[in-house]
Amino acid sequence: MLFRNRFLLLLALAALLAFLSLSLQFFHLIPMSAARNGASSKSRKRIMPDPVTEPPVTDPVYEALLYCNIPRVAERSMEGHAPHHFKLVSVHVLIRHGDRYPLYAIPKTKRPEIDCTLMANRKPYHPKLEAFVNHMSKGSGSSFESPLNSMPLYPNHALCEMGELTQTGVVQHLQNGQLLGDIYLKKHKLLPSDWSPDQLYLETTGRTRTLQSGLALLYGFLPDFDWKKIYFRHQPSVLFCSGNCYCPVRNQYLEKEQRRQYLLRLKNSQLEQTYGEMAKIVNVPTKLLRAANPIDSMLCHFCHNVSFPCTSSGCFDMEHFKVIKMHQIEDEKERRKKRLYLGYSLLGAHPILNQTIDRMQRIAEGRKDEVFALYSAHDVTLSPVLSALGLSEARFPRFAARLIFELWQDREKPSEHSVRILYNGVDVTFHTFFCQDHHKRSSKPMCPLENLVRFVKRDMFVTLDSSSTNYHDACHREGV
């Protein structure tokens, strides 16, 4: 009898533990381990699944909310996670600027009234917001390469200017910076307390929204940093290609990709009907309205909870918004199936990826400079890099998106280094072209740095279906 009671008690405990384990996995409180020998191919299909809140079918409103990236109190993050015998030795961060005012105006409508001054009594708020403004007011132009030295260091217009960073955009990157600071500085001690200027590499395009986003992230990362110890470099190209921007074949791929987009739009009768309805509301030709890119402005209305524009002939509404947003989603799906954008991406992203691995290799060889690199960029910078890495399931870069390359040293074998790739806090290393089959060939828990180096130096051109073995030849080959 005693044995039977003990058996029933153990059975009950086993059932309780199984229930708790499933519950924790469902609510993301413990990670789901990847199966070996290819059994995880299904779970690896999507990079950022959220089974609790994600709709069962594609929902344009849900996708738009993700794009807005409205600041939240807590965010899921896997940065800085590695087996205990690995040491973090460098981090390379590529960000998209934060929330901004539209780049385009809808003809014959009133601009959305959004205040671009930074105010602590207005949402969204961040505890470091006031200190950030105060610190920026002390900034010196000598800390920036021309023409950055003539730009405002934070947004400050009662009515936002076109393309200007908003308070939401500042808060998004203050949060990003604070999160990365907690992980990389407080936990991993990536920079010493007496860090030197040559340990940081900072680069941004010549737009106020990218400079200000970079500064917001840097302030969240290194609060009250010494202005004399930072220097932002100016990058003229959105592709961060520096002196390697001339690439005729890349431009050919882009032209073909734009033609594909145009033909897909012509096939969408619902989209054409929607543009026609909206054009009548503002009393302009349909072609003129389409050229004004109304979705850009409508996304600003949507993200800031401002009513869509109206005229005496009617109002733009949520149904119009859904149709255009849904077409964007369908366009992204078709883009993944074609290799035109991939060809553009492999050549467009090569210079910045090459620069990143060169810096990683120097650090792996023992150099101590530029251990933290920050590139403040645009969606048209991140999107090609994601595609070139093979992250085809990654969503289009949201406001304040972040793509991070971590370099780790094996303490037990100091000559061996590994990399991790993270997109918006999610570890996507084993979704990449260069490491998606790593678990089949090796028992090592991390992806070797050599995999990424080999991919950028050689295999990117193989993926391009090119006989070329270097960037210059791939850019100038014939017969694309």
From TrEMBL:
Record's subcellular location: Golgi apparatus membrane
One GO CC annotation, please?
Golgi membrane
* Annotated keywords: Glycoprotein, Golgi apparatus, Hydrolase, Membrane, Signal-anchor, Transmembrane, Transmembrane helix
Q: Which InterPro entries match?
A: Acid_Pase_AS, His_Pase_clade-2, His_PPase_superfam, Histidine_acid_phosphatase
Top-rank taxon, per record: Eukaryota
Instruction: Tell me how this protein assembles.
Output: Interacts with B3GAT3; the interaction increases the 2-phosphoxylose phosphatase activity of PXYLP1 during completion of linkage region formation in a B3GAT3-mediated manner.
Family, per entry = Belongs to the histidine acid phosphatase family.
UniProt name for this protein:
2-phosphoxylose phosphatase 1
User: Taxonomic classification, please?
Assistant: Eukaryota, Metazoa, Chordata, Craniata, Vertebrata
